[in-house]
Amino acid sequence: YVQGVDNVYDLNFNGREGAEKVTYGDVFLQAEQEYSRHNFEFANTAMLLRHFEDAEAECKALLAAGQPASNDNSPMHKLVFPAYDQCIKASHVFNLLDARGVISVTERQSYILRVRNLAKACGEAFLLTRAGGLAA
Fold this sequence. Notes:
By secondary structure, this protein is mainly alpha-helical. The chain has two domains: 1-42, no CATH class; 44-136, Class II aaRS and biotin synthetases, domain 2 (Methane Monooxygenase Hydroxylase, Chain G, domain 1). It contains four helices and no strands. It is flat and about 65 Å long.
Protein backbone atom coordinates (compact mmCIF):
# COMPACT_ATOMS: atom_id res chain seq x y z
CA TYR A 1 0.00 0.00 0.00
CA VAL A 2 1.12 3.53 -0.70
CA GLN A 3 0.61 5.63 2.44
CA GLY A 4 -1.35 2.67 3.88
CA VAL A 5 -4.51 3.39 1.86
CA ASP A 6 -6.45 1.16 -0.55
CA ASN A 7 -7.83 3.93 -2.74
CA VAL A 8 -5.76 6.41 -4.74
CA TYR A 9 -8.26 9.15 -3.91
CA ASP A 10 -7.44 8.74 -0.21
CA LEU A 11 -3.73 9.52 -0.71
CA ASN A 12 -2.50 12.47 1.32
CA PHE A 13 -1.80 15.09 -1.33
CA ASN A 14 -0.29 17.91 0.74
CA GLY A 15 1.38 16.02 3.61
CA ARG A 16 -0.73 17.66 6.30
CA GLU A 17 -3.14 16.10 8.77
CA GLY A 18 -6.50 16.95 10.27
CA ALA A 19 -8.48 19.86 8.86
CA GLU A 20 -5.47 20.96 6.76
CA LYS A 21 -5.16 17.58 5.01
CA VAL A 22 -5.93 17.58 1.29
CA THR A 23 -6.36 14.22 -0.44
CA TYR A 24 -5.72 13.30 -4.03
CA GLY A 25 -9.49 12.90 -4.37
CA ASP A 26 -10.09 16.43 -3.07
CA VAL A 27 -7.91 17.73 -5.89
CA PHE A 28 -8.61 15.37 -8.80
CA LEU A 29 -11.82 13.35 -8.32
CA GLN A 30 -14.17 15.87 -9.95
CA ALA A 31 -11.88 16.26 -12.96
CA GLU A 32 -11.56 12.47 -13.29
CA GLN A 33 -15.33 12.08 -13.24
CA GLU A 34 -15.93 14.86 -15.76
CA TYR A 35 -13.22 13.73 -18.18
CA SER A 36 -14.42 10.14 -17.97
CA ARG A 37 -17.94 11.23 -18.81
CA HIS A 38 -16.63 13.33 -21.70
CA ASN A 39 -14.38 10.56 -23.02
CA PHE A 40 -17.00 7.81 -22.91
CA GLU A 41 -20.22 9.71 -23.61
CA PHE A 42 -19.82 13.16 -25.09
CA ALA A 43 -16.59 13.46 -27.12
CA ASN A 44 -17.52 14.61 -30.63
CA THR A 45 -16.37 11.68 -32.74
CA ALA A 46 -16.62 13.44 -36.13
CA MET A 47 -14.39 16.20 -34.81
CA LEU A 48 -12.00 13.68 -33.25
CA LEU A 49 -11.62 11.86 -36.57
CA ARG A 50 -10.62 15.18 -38.17
CA HIS A 51 -8.23 15.91 -35.29
CA PHE A 52 -6.54 12.54 -35.76
CA GLU A 53 -6.05 13.21 -39.47
CA ASP A 54 -4.77 16.72 -38.75
CA ALA A 55 -2.30 15.59 -36.07
CA GLU A 56 -1.01 12.78 -38.28
CA ALA A 57 -0.55 15.12 -41.25
CA GLU A 58 1.12 17.80 -39.12
CA CYS A 59 3.52 15.29 -37.56
CA LYS A 60 4.57 14.08 -41.00
CA ALA A 61 4.89 17.65 -42.31
CA LEU A 62 7.04 18.72 -39.35
CA LEU A 63 9.27 15.67 -39.71
CA ALA A 64 9.75 16.48 -43.39
CA ALA A 65 10.33 20.20 -42.74
CA GLY A 66 12.86 19.52 -39.99
CA GLN A 67 14.99 17.16 -42.04
CA PRO A 68 18.52 18.40 -42.67
CA ALA A 69 18.78 20.03 -46.08
CA SER A 70 21.24 18.51 -48.49
CA ASN A 71 23.03 21.88 -48.77
CA ASP A 72 23.10 22.32 -44.98
CA ASN A 73 26.35 21.60 -43.19
CA SER A 74 24.42 20.49 -40.11
CA PRO A 75 23.00 16.96 -40.14
CA MET A 76 20.65 17.93 -37.31
CA HIS A 77 16.90 17.49 -37.43
CA LYS A 78 15.25 20.74 -36.38
CA LEU A 79 11.59 19.93 -35.57
CA VAL A 80 11.57 16.71 -33.59
CA PHE A 81 9.74 17.89 -30.50
CA PRO A 82 6.91 19.71 -32.31
CA ALA A 83 6.47 16.62 -34.51
CA TYR A 84 6.41 14.38 -31.44
CA ASP A 85 3.74 16.60 -29.85
CA GLN A 86 1.56 15.90 -32.87
CA CYS A 87 2.26 12.17 -32.56
CA ILE A 88 1.12 12.29 -28.93
CA LYS A 89 -2.01 14.22 -29.96
CA ALA A 90 -2.82 11.58 -32.57
CA SER A 91 -2.33 8.86 -29.96
CA HIS A 92 -4.59 10.64 -27.47
CA VAL A 93 -7.29 11.19 -30.09
CA PHE A 94 -7.09 7.52 -31.06
CA ASN A 95 -7.69 6.60 -27.40
CA LEU A 96 -10.74 8.88 -27.28
CA LEU A 97 -12.11 7.39 -30.49
CA ASP A 98 -11.52 3.91 -29.12
CA ALA A 99 -13.25 4.81 -25.83
CA ARG A 100 -16.26 6.09 -27.77
CA GLY A 101 -16.45 2.79 -29.66
CA VAL A 102 -16.36 4.31 -33.15
CA ILE A 103 -13.33 2.34 -34.34
CA SER A 104 -13.92 -1.22 -35.49
CA VAL A 105 -11.54 -4.06 -34.61
CA THR A 106 -10.03 -3.90 -38.11
CA GLU A 107 -9.71 -0.10 -38.02
CA ARG A 108 -8.19 -0.26 -34.55
CA GLN A 109 -5.18 -2.18 -35.83
CA SER A 110 -4.77 0.34 -38.63
CA TYR A 111 -4.90 3.32 -36.25
CA ILE A 112 -2.40 1.70 -33.89
CA LEU A 113 -0.05 1.12 -36.81
CA ARG A 114 -0.42 4.72 -37.95
CA VAL A 115 0.46 6.02 -34.49
CA ARG A 116 3.32 3.53 -34.24
CA ASN A 117 4.72 4.72 -37.57
CA LEU A 118 4.58 8.33 -36.38
CA ALA A 119 6.34 7.43 -33.13
CA LYS A 120 8.99 5.44 -34.97
CA ALA A 121 9.63 8.31 -37.39
CA CYS A 122 9.90 10.74 -34.47
CA GLY A 123 12.36 8.41 -32.74
CA GLU A 124 14.48 8.14 -35.88
CA ALA A 125 14.46 11.93 -36.25
CA PHE A 126 15.37 12.33 -32.56
CA LEU A 127 18.55 10.35 -33.22
CA LEU A 128 19.51 13.19 -35.59
CA THR A 129 19.57 15.72 -32.73
CA ARG A 130 22.11 16.63 -30.06
CA ALA A 131 19.80 15.24 -27.38
CA GLY A 132 19.54 12.04 -29.40
CA GLY A 133 23.29 11.63 -29.50
CA LEU A 134 24.32 13.27 -32.77
CA ALA A 135 27.38 15.47 -32.35
CA ALA A 136 27.17 18.65 -34.41
